[in-house]
Amino acid sequence: MKLYNSYSQKIEPLKPIQDNKISMYVCGPTVYNYPHIGNARPIVVFDTLKKALQVQGYNVTFVSNYTDVDDKIINAAIENNVSEKEITDKYIKAYNEVRTGLHADLPDVAPRVTETMDKIISFIEELIQKGAAYQVDGDVYFRIESDPIYGELSHQKMDDLMVGARIDENSKKENPLDFTLWKQTDKGIQWDSPWSKGRPGWHTECVVMIQDVFKTDLIDIHGGGLDLKFPHHENEMAQCQACNHTRLANTWVHNGMINIDGTKMSKSLGNVRWAKDLIAQFGGNVVRWVMISVQYRALMNLTDEVFDVAIKELNKIQNAYKQACLQMELANIQRGNQLDDDLWKSFIDALNDDLNTPNAITTVLDTVKSINQNIRKRPVDFDQITKLVYTLERELYVLGIEFEPLKLTEQDKEMYTAWRKAVKEKDFITADQYRLTLQEKGII
Fold first, then answer.
1. Residue 411, exposed/middle/buried by CB under 10 A (0-12, 13-18, 19+)?
2. pLDDT number for residue 259
3. Going by C-beta distance under 8 Å and a sequence separation of 6 or more, which residues neighbour residue 444?
4. All residues at 6 or more sequence positions from 199 whose CB lies less than 8 Å from its CB, including other chains
5. Measuring CA to CA, which residue among 183, 230, 236, 216 is closest to residue 69?
6. How far is CA 378 from CA 67, 158, 372, 375, 381, in A?
7. Which of 133, 196, 286, 418 could form a Cys-Cys staple with 282, CB 3.0–4.6 A?
8. Long-range CB contacts (< 8 A, 24+ apart) of 366-370?
9. Is the dihedral of CA 399, 401, 404, 405 positive or negative?
10. Is 160 a residue whose pLDDT tops 80?
């Protein structure tokens, strides 16, 4: 597997820290509203990456957090006159419904900030002790100058960042770029700390959760949307660098953003598309197919046309799959577990080339073409068909596309045989009766 590493700006071989094991952490959502379609893209990207690694024998531990303390959450709780936990529980449930609606696996571990608070406070104390952080009037800030490589992940120079920094004359910070680790507040949910009653800054939580879950300060893959690269991931890396002298992850993977009809999605423009609505309208297969039809680092533009194309391609795949299953069921052929080596290699090679899902889709369509050719052959070569069907099923599994395999009862087989006999004898009234029943059952 080769992946584009945002840190090095190169496509590099993925070299696991431990043999055949991959530690992967993806920044999760701040849960104060329903997930929009932009939130859904990393769900699909990193679930596909995980499955692509797993089918090649890697033991992947996949972790994604929930940020369940934030000003937006507190404001939503106040506005609705409920607790912050009621808000976050509601939207964590909604997020997981989107995840399963897109046929993505739930994370192996899904830590919450509110359940990691003691460790976050201890980590901030350690940063202060090492001179990488300082407190002022109950607030704690990270000292950017304690990290000599600050800006290396986002490839920005400190001087350039300083020019663009907002200067606040009343700021307590030593440097305008210093960021908050702990915020003193009397609004909303709070925790006691050595500095004040308050809550943590956003950038610290993931570092602590990674160390807490993986029991290490260096993992294989850290992922998220491109919008997180700076400042969030840069600030995560800075803290880990200051405290543990590591970059937190060997490979930093960022998925591209989403436009709607050529325009950036934003609440101010009123073009936000909620993931749950698109799943309800098109189904998880179609939404996921649209997501993987573009290479994960590229900008994705959602239009009516891309959904139409996805529907047509998936119908083509499903029809071929159904026809192959039908022929196997009628002939009482057992399902196989052998792959077509050439097609499978082509599929895996595409995924190993920086998760090139468009090329992987090309191989899926090649598999479908081969299935259609083989089910028309006489006599039917069921050894080859079973290989092709199993290959298609494995390809679709990795890409997160789910079709129910066709299963026939003995009664179904008799009805199908009777329908074909009626057609052959030109008994169209009887044939139509059988055909309607078979269609209702989804057999033809």
1. exposed
2. 96
3. 326, 416, 435, 438
4. 69, 182, 183, 185, 188, 189, 190, 191
5. 183
6. 59, 70, 13, 8, 8
7. 286
8. 367/340, 367/343, 367/391, 367/392, 367/395, 368/316, 368/317, 368/320, 368/321, 368/392, 370/340, 370/343
9. negative
10. no
Place 165 in a pLDDT band, splitting at 50, 70 and 90. low
User: For the range 414-420, what are the long-range contacts, defined as Cβ-Cβ under 8 Å and sequence gap of 24 or more?
Assistant: 416/326, 416/330, 416/443, 416/444, 417/330
What angle in degrees, to the nearest 10, is found between the helix axes of 275-282 and 304-330?
A: 50
Please enumerate in sequence order all residues whose Cβ is within 8 A of that of 353, keeping only pairs 6 or more positions apart, or say none: 2, 359
Structure tokens at 232: 């969030």
Which bin fits 270, alpha (ψ -120 to 50), beta or left (φ > 0)? left
Tell me the Ramachandran region of residue 250: left when phi exceeds 0, alpha when psi lies from -120 to 50, beta otherwise: alpha
Q: What is the CA radius of gyration of the chain?
A: 26
Judge contact between 257 and 226, C-beta under 8 A. Answer: yes
Q: Are strands 258-260 and 300-302 parallel, antiparallel or unpaired?
A: parallel
**pLDDT mean over 353-365:** 98
Which residue in 250, 271, 245, 47 sits closest to 146, CA to CA? 245
**Burial code of 236-254, b = ≥16 C-beta within 10 A, e = fewer?**
bbbbbbbbbeebbbbbbbb
* Residue 385 contacts residue 371 (beta carbons within 8 Å): yes
How many other C-beta atoms can be found within 10 angstroms of the C-beta atom of residue 352? 18
Q: Using CA atoms, how far apart are residues 395 and 360, in angstroms rounded to an integer?
A: 8
pLDDT in tens, 200-241: 998 999 999 999 999 999 999 999 999 999 999 999 999 999
What is Dmax (Cα atoms) for the chain? 92
How does pLDDT run across 371-423, given as a tens digit for each residue? Answer: 999 999 988 899 999 999 999 999 999 999 999 999 999 999 999 999 999 99
Residue 167, pLDDT > 70, answer no
pLDDT at site 161:
81
- Decide if 168 contacts 176 (C-beta within 8 A): yes
Band (163; pLDDT cuts 50, 70, 90): low
